[in-house]
Amino acid sequence: MVNKVKELLKKHNITLAAHYYQKDEIFELADLTGDSLELAKKTKALKNPLIFCGVSFMGESAKILNPDIDVYMPKLASCSMARMAEEGKVEENIKLLKEKNIDFIPITYINSSAKVKAIVGENGGLTCTSSNAKKIVSWALNQGKKVFFLPDKNLGQNVASMMGVSSSIIGEKDWEKADIICYDGHCSVHQLFMPEHVEFFKNRYPDIKIVVHPECSPEVVKLADFVGSTSQILKYVKEHPNEPMAIGTEFNFVNRMKKEINPNIFILSSTKPECPSMNETTLKELYDLLVAIDEGRAYNVVNVDENVKENALKALNRMMELS
Ligand code: 13P
Ligand code: SF4
């Protein structure tokens, strides 16, 4: 299958992009790898067809930013956090903020559907990723506005703590007063990391460094030695190749760093923190898609509704200009 995948990619001049959370069997074949911001930037520059191995919002963003190329995904796997930001609920929340006369800029984490990005774009807002969230939120606050941050309440609250501003979750007591008002969503994988896991590792290995993604809960983030997006964690690990560390983020990514960079890495969890959506894409799924493309019966071609595209692009482009 590996040889056939390579042969068909070459034959059809297709670029293969894979997020760091993809299985090794996919990641090893990819022409482009990265976190969500890096992949959005790299795929924007392409002139040839693309197969994107990741979750749906990533393929959709690639198509919106680069509408002239064909974008395929072996699996249209949906991120559970993106699913939490239901269009109707987001619209309701924005209506409530307006009714309360709150002067705000909506910022949606890129982990959201194209429709939600379009609602945000239409309301003067923009997207962010975990690597630029602080920069994007600062930009909004510097205009004297509040921020409505969605869907990830953890990322929103963690960014607020890093910046020394206040945060709340919409609907909670006195939520209107906070600088960053968060939608009530979270990542089902990063919620697995608990303060007791940090305690366990610190008791056992006093010198261990605790490294976490900002989608983890504020309670865990407060106890960490380093907090960063996927690419920032990778950079940190490369800079500390021998130090013992316990890492709180997705399993495939952490395991790869343990094998390739630092054998003294532990998973900061008592369960295996695999992202079910990222793991839906397998070598067999990639192979099947390429055979279908070769036989002229391509499927999972990413398309975004015309009425959604324009405003979603506004939200993405505003982020790209600031990144
Ligand atoms: P990155 O922006 O760090 O790639 O994160 C994407 C993601 O889905 C993390 O769970
Ligand atoms: Fe979505 Fe969480 Fe999976 Fe990232 S790890 S793709 S946020 S479910």
TrEMBL record:
Q: What one GO molecular function would you report for this record?
A: quinolinate synthetase A activity
Required co-factors: [4Fe-4S] cluster
**Protein's GO biological process:** 'de novo' NAD+ biosynthetic process from L-aspartate
Record has Lipid metabolism as a keyword: no
What broad class of enzyme is this? transferase
The GO cellular component terms are: cytosol
Keyword Transferase, does the record have it? yes
Short name of one Pfam family = NadA
Among Gene3D superfamilies, the record links this protein to: NadA-like (3.40.50.10800)
Q: What is its EC number?
A: 2.5.1.72
Q: In which pathway does it act?
A: Cofactor biosynthesis; NAD(+) biosynthesis; quinolinate from iminoaspartate: step 1/1
Catalytic activity entry: iminosuccinate + dihydroxyacetone phosphate = quinolinate + phosphate + 2 H2O + H(+)
Query: Which keywords are on file for this protein?
Result: 4Fe-4S, Iron, Iron-sulfur, Metal-binding, Pyridine nucleotide biosynthesis, Transferase
Function summary: Catalyzes the condensation of iminoaspartate with dihydroxyacetone phosphate to form quinolinate.
Family annotation (PANTHER family) = QUINOLINATE SYNTHASE, CHLOROPLASTIC, QUINOLINATE SYNTHETASE A
What NCBIfam families does the record tag this protein with? Answer: nadA, PRK09375.2-6
Q: What is the name attached to this protein's record?
A: Quinolinate synthase
Specify the species: Caminibacter pacificus
Q: Which gene encodes it?
A: nadA
